[in-house]
């Protein structure tokens, strides 16, 4: 039984690896996989994958790395998709100050427009944030009050975590960080409410492609490390994190 709250199945290369990967997911007792787009070019593939397996939850969005190439037709298509089904969510979207070639004004405009769509259609959204907490948090607070959201690959401070949680957000924590086991991340994980924690791989980026079993083992190991840090059984930890994910889909 698996749950992964940030994955990019459509980006697995070569594409011939996707069918055996999907077969593995189906055979492993799947719960849900939040499959995120990063550009409009991804949207049709993300929707196709979701249509092929009910455990794949589609998130359609515009990643900040691609926020300078959005057309009016893209915005029309995104709203059309969101209005067509209540099971289509928003993301990956956000702000990234490491991308010096794309101005923050452009990134903010695209991010806010997506937040407003999430608010309009009452859809959960997945946030990418790199070195931009002082901008991301006020924008969510201003434009998305009451909307469910998760912070993808959260690596902020305890103080930032408290602000995110105070707005009703969830912390989606990376398997990569669990496996690295750095003291600061361990202390953060031990200090936040377990009912606001999710676990992700960001596959095939942070967890690299190998055999489908390698992916499954990495994801399982993340849950095991979390259980150990919190002094809980693996079974109880898995059940709690799966319950947290159901907030977005049920």
Notable traits:
250 residues; alpha/beta; TIM Barrel; eight-stranded parallel sheet
CATH-wise, what's the superfamily? Metal-dependent hydrolases
Counting DSSP H or I runs of 4 or more residues, the number of helices is 10
Q: Work out the radius of gyration.
A: 17 Å
Tell me the CATH topology: TIM Barrel
Strand arrangement across the biggest beta sheet: 1-2-3-4-5-6-7-8
Q: Which architecture name does CATH use?
A: Alpha-Beta Barrel
Characterize the structure shown.
It contains ten helices and eight strands. The relative contact order is 0.14. It is α/β, with parallel strands linked by helices and 250 residues long. The chain has one domain: TIM Barrel (Alpha-Beta Barrel), CATH 3.20.20. α3 links the parallel β3 and β4. It has an eight-stranded parallel β-sheet. α4 packs parallel to α5 and α9 crosses α10. The chain is globular and about 50 Å long. 48% of the residues lie in helices and 18% in strands. The mean pLDDT is 95.
